[in-house]
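Checklist before submission:
- one chain only
- standard amino acids only
- sequence pasted in full

Submission:
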Amino acid sequence: MPDDIRIEYHPNLYVPREKAESEVQKWLTGNGRLLTITSPPATGKSWLLKRVKMEEGFLKNVPSFWLDIRDFLVPATGSLIGSRVIDPNGLEKWLAQFLKEAQETCKNVPAYDAGVETAVLLEKFAEAMQQCHPKQKLYLLVEGGDEPAEAIWNAIERQILEPIARLANWRFIIVLRHEQRLISYMLRRDEQRLVLGALPKISNKGKEQLELLRQEAQNPHLPDTDTILTILPDYPWSHPGLNHFLFLEVKANYRLPRANWLNHDYCLRGLCAITQLPLDHVN
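Returned file contents:
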């Protein structure tokens, strides 16, 4: 792969998912307490969550907090999605920073104390924020929930999410793998699921994504979008991750004969780009 398809959220590259965004809006205006966004790898769930966090019309003027579980997981080099474990030092650094930032908006939030359990500190944080914002819904947006191993996710539910969920005003939006399920009954009993599938096959969404990528690349020598679409004429351009993979392959190799880079391992390279697996791990 010439680049990583899992780039950070970029508003100029976001392809609107009107139906999914409408479902999120409906949930936000209702009485739900926990929404999980699930999908296969690289289909846009993380970007949808980032859009909810950053764009007006979702959580504007609403107290919300961001939790990226990857901030305290052991680095992913060579590990499978769904198998990462917690780095204790990373967890301490994350919690200290999380509480420090929360203190900027609510002075009653406790300072980090290495002698106090994570669950206790987070329950005190949740209580303090509820006191600072009485009668308001408070939101925790959880990114990276699809990356830890099942036992590690269970520990995260018990030590990080449950202590906050005990307070009535708190709401959660959590990104998970498509086959992943919440373990905690406290969380699961209030769960609603939003399954984010591929882009519609009969639409211009794939072409729209390629247009945005071409504009961002600012390379006048790249083939036009219609030419890129002909590279795999039977592909429906319905998977955002594969779309991005193909664009990056074109950007890196468009001066070469197609046979030199669209070879027999093309599908394997695309799969590795989506799942973050090294090529020698895929049969």
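Reviewer check: The mean pLDDT is 87.
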